[in-house]
Amino acid sequence: MNLKMFLKRKLVRIKKEKVIVPCLEGQMLNGKSSLITGGSSGIGFAIAYTFLKNGANVTICGRNSKKLMEAKNKLVQDCMCKSEKVDTLILDISDIPEMREKLVKYLENKTIDIFVNNAGINVGDLFPNTSEEEYDRVLNTNLKGMYFISQLIAKYMVENKIEGNILNITSSSSLRPGISPYIISKWGERSLTLGMAKKYLPYGIVVNGLAPGSTLTPMLKTNDDNDLSLDYSPAGRYVAPEEIGNLATILVSNMGRMVVGDTIYATGGAGVITYDDTTY
Questions:
Q1: 19 and 11 in contact (C-beta within 8 Å)?
Q2: Which positions are annotated as active-site residues?
Q3: Residue 2 within a domain
Q4: How many independent structural domains does the chain possess?
Q5: To 10 degrees, the CA torsion angle through 92, 97, 102, 104?
Q6: Which residues contact 41 (CB under 8 A, 6 or more apart)?
Q7: Residue 224 class from Cβ within 10 Å (0-12 exposed, 13-18 middle, 19+ buried)?
């Protein structure tokens, strides 16, 4: 593997100061093919971008065909790569029968070495005001969907003797008191990561988790001025999606093969060294 790489610089702002966010580029994933759920925006898009910049082919999954095509076009343009390096798959992981049917058909003539469980939602009120509909909507995507798509991918890798990687994008919320469906789902994802890692390491499949803190994505912040300022974070700012893409790339590369069953927290300290995001 060619470990030579360079850093592509991106300027963001923390209040009035400029910060350089590096983006890994090289050949760390050369020849690999990846499947990324929730890949049309936010963290999933950033992971797809960094994978492409490191030689991988990517398939981005999502529920909206228009957003997927817009994301594909932007990835091809920004990465200056051939169109065939990026594929799209319309997929709703909360609909298990449909997800299973579509994915099994898609994988018939594909080789996937890297699977990134990234799709997730955060809606609804906190306990004790959560509705059953809100609870089911979150858990059906974040935990149930992740569970069953992981089963399918893991079986596919074993049957095809693929010694690959499964990366679950969890959250620093997996360390917080379970006061919402989202937090409960992230606790479950962290547990599932450990279970999958233990089960599939003998097959050469490495499973890990990557837990971002508050990240500058449309889920949390809608402005596009690259202002990362975040008062409650010990680091004083949001995580940049590119930083998650960098870590994801390292974890699924040959450099990360001895990191097994771990969850890497990229939080700026929020949720890890402080919980000062609640006002009493």
A1: yes
A2: 182
A3: no
A4: 1
A5: 130
A6: 67, 71, 217, 218
A7: exposed
Which tens digits make up the pLDDT trace of 25-38? 889 999 999 999 99
Inter-residue contact 121 to 218 (CB < 8 Å): no
pLDDT at residue 108 tops 50:
yes
In a domain, 279, yes or no: no
> Is residue 109 helix, strand or coil?
coil
**C-alpha span between 35 and 247 (Å, rounded):** 17
Structure tokens at 146: 């992740």
Q: Quick one: residue 61, left, alpha or beta (phi over 0 = left, psi -120 to 50 = alpha)?
A: beta
Which among 196, 104, 107, 113 has a CA at the least distance from the CA of 162?
113
For residue 5, name the pLDDT band (cuts at 50, 70, 90): very low
User: The domain that contains 174 carries what CATH number?
Assistant: 3.40.50.720
Write out the residue range of the structural domain in which residue 72 sits.
27-266
Q: What are phi and psi of 50, to 5 degrees?
A: -70, -35
Domain-located, residue 7? no
Q: For a pLDDT cut of 70, what percent of the chain falls above it?
A: 88
Q: Is residue 237 part of a domain?
A: yes
